[in-house]
Amino acid sequence: MEDETEGAVVLERRAAKGPFVFVCEHAVNAFPARWGDLGLTASQRHAHVAWDPGALGLARALSVQLESPLVRATTSRLIYDLNRPPQSASAMPARSELHDIPGNADLSAKERLDRTQALYLPFHAELRMLLAEKLALGQRPILVTVHSFTPVYYGRPRDVELGIIHDADPALACAVLEEARAQTRLDSRLNEPYSAADEVTHTLALQATPLGLMNVMLELRNDLLPDAAAQKAMASLLAPVLQAALARIQKPLEVV
Amino acid sequence: MEDETEGAVVLERRAAKGPFVFVCEHAVNAFPARWGDLGLTASQRHAHVAWDPGALGLARALSVQLESPLVRATTSRLIYDLNRPPQSASAMPARSELHDIPGNADLSAKERLDRTQALYLPFHAELRMLLAEKLALGQRPILVTVHSFTPVYYGRPRDVELGIIHDADPALACAVLEEARAQTRLDSRLNEPYSAADEVTHTLALQATPLGLMNVMLELRNDLLPDAAAQKAMASLLAPVLQAALARIQKPLEVV
After folding, report:
1. Is residue B256 part of a domain?
2. Inter-chain touch B129–A121, beta carbons under 8 Å
């Protein structure tokens, strides 16, 4: 019952005055009773296919340290992946990496519509509302989506530790890359392990690009975020990176 | 009181099954009591700065003839121009063409926020909902925004009769131009009298581009839409243009 009343979205530190708005679309691996466990085992429901382990702890610690709001999901990405539009096969995937998702096989149009209305629309409406309110008040919020990825994908290990992904406007992503390389020892790469071409920038494309907002998607390798202490430490490493990247971009062009 | 309860948006023929979704952001010149008449004279409130005369009649007739939904505004564009984001000076303009808008001079942040929350957010949330529902059901709605422009602007007469304007994806606009030239005698031009560079494609950029939907903005010179009969006749001219343009795009590429 608690699941049902929580709604599709939680805003943390909604009134915070910092320059960023953090988003965590794959925050949790909750399977509300309305949709059930999709026929998955407990071990599958805890695996990275069901959520981005560690991403919420990191996003929340960034939100605290940078005094900026956090908009986060309440439901597993396997029920609806909020970083995908309704027509995408991967919005409600029948297969994810090595796992079949029985509860997503042969979904009817009515079931797809139900999840879209219950999860996708309210999540993005709430985020839109927060961004538009800040714009009306004369602020220019900066959208940062926070994700984690698995160290081994389809059996192959991944070396990249911090992926920095952009949509149409690469300005902030490039600045974050420069600062991450200058300030940290993380193996930091642009548009790895995914890029916009993999359809992973839907939230940026939907929420930031049409409003002309600076934006970036951060992807952390999830073995670097095993517990709350590690997530907080990573936030302490990345918060100054984001601040310096922002300052770098906002610095007026020098007149020669 | 009627104004207050009507809400920010009206959906006509919501359940219609045709391929288009028509949008009319500048449908009416209503000034609800909540915001008053902005200090304008009756003649200013009837001029094109307050709305797009004839656009609603045309959009509604297209919606009927093509059996497709229409999403339309309920309030003058001078209170909030729904085709502009909240941070745009022209969303709540202090001056429009030759007219000062006293009620928009020195708006406070709180007043801008109030209009954004009352008009912009619900209008675009309702449109998003309609589009996302169709996508979840496996349809690919085509977004067509319907506008009218004044024959004389800053004292200069305009020759163009039908302006066809695109956002990032020009495919449908180019097909509509070809068909308008083939099927009608209208002086039809691409990206006139405005283009995306004039910030007039916000609705397309916000609602169609991020979801990969085909889209076009139609601008009719308003002296061609003086009354219901003329608006209906123009719809009868343009409905086959839109249908043929759509067929032209959807036709599979021929193998040579």
Report:
1. no
2. yes
